[in-house]
Write a structure and sequence with these properties.
Length: 551
Amino acid sequence: MAGVLAAANAVARTAATPFHIVKSMAIAPPERLRIAPPDIRTADPTVADEIYTGYFSFAGKTLQSYGESPFALMPPSPAWRRALAGFSWLRHLRAADKTLAQEKARALVGEFLAIKKLSPDDPALEPAVAARRLLSFLAQSPVLLEGADAEFYDAFMLSLAQSARLLWRALATGQAQGADRALSAIALAEFAVCADTGRKIAPQVSHALSAELDRQILGDGGHISRNPQVAVDLLLDLLPLRQVLAARGLQTPPAMLRAIDRMMPTLRMLQHGDGSLALFNGMGATELDRVASVLANEDTRGAAPLKAPYAGYQRLEAADAVVLVDAGAAPPPEFSLAAHAGCLSFEYSLGTERVVVNCGASSAPHEDLRDLARATAAHSTLVVDDRSSARIASKDSGRWRAGRLFDGPRNVTVERTDAQAATALSLTHDGYAKSFSFIHERELILSADGATLAGRDRLLGVEAGAAGPGEQEFAIRFHLHPRVRAVELSEAIELQLASGETLIFESDGAFPAIEESIFFASPGGVRKCAQIVLRGKAAPGAEVSWSFQRA
């Protein structure tokens, strides 16, 4: 029943009003900054060289400015404009440690500050972008303000106050939604600590941040969106805030300390042997340097947890074998814009080699493939009639519904058995109960020596469904990492790993076939890969057993 409790807990947290805040606040421009927070994201000086020569590469798109201000160019995509206006790239110029690069940073910031008025629909005014810009300006203020003239100094301080006011309104009016609320509160809290005019707003901002973290970070350290990337991003901003609070001798809100302490172990739980995070609910290619930066700040480091019942994840491990399982219901709609219909999907790795994966979230250059990547068929689980176990609201569903996940599994059950010979999971979800009158039951067993992963998928009939069983078919998909080569044998499939190791896949109840698939979560972009597919007639009692055996 852990999955059911997780869903109930998530709904209860979202339903509660986190805090009340006045709609406007006269936040004055600072006269000075008391401290500059660190930026723990890694920097690349070669990016500084590109920017210095006029090339701006963001979100998979590159523009050459040819001497013009990049802020005056027609952006190739909204994502490119968001990245430009968020100024996170300033850290690369600072890392170059060259006078010319630092002067370029100040010149580019000056071009943005010189804009008289931004268009109301400019992505630069979105709460998440304004929060990122405020955090970036504060972190890079030593370089930007050193040797700056009075005009730049005043404009810079005014921009900080304007961003703070924008974020205050966004929190008060509800314009900031989902994880953006926590990001906005973090940026405001950092402003309150660093700017000499921040004392006025500090108490309410501290309350707002605490309320959002208590709402969004579940008891087991998972984020309510169930997206591992959101947890990484929040920690990359929370950790510098914790450092500046300590440096100034200020008390860190207990909710913030709880959130950080809980999130770190859960991130490690979702890691494969190569350091990559499991491809669940919006997770794309893992930026290993960022994850390493986060985990380097973990105060105590023990073994990775084996379950996160509120977040809805399970981990099986034996020797160098790791199995990660999505065992949770869909997140609340507010937090589901990136969520996937991958209930009961799993990923499987041996050492540093990932074997079975989900397809992962598509990157910004492949926005047109986003819904495809979110479908159940893009996950290593069972699919009925090529229909997803949850519905993604269409783009014409209205501003607050479009793209969110609806009608997904409501009841997800998990039973875990840890024995000397093996660890077993027995799971069910009802995502197909309404449309097809089926419950999907899945069993996963990892042997104690890590040599065998066995599974069984079964369809159970229910009477509550709106439609009875028909002539539908099911498909059980096992998407393989691009580094895995699959070869058909007479009644089995041989998997050859890049490490040289060999696995044998066998099944009972359906014949295995190799089909093409797509892997969205590669650092280099979309890659072709293979998948093993087991097909059969969808009927009550339909059952297929399968196994991966190390040769």
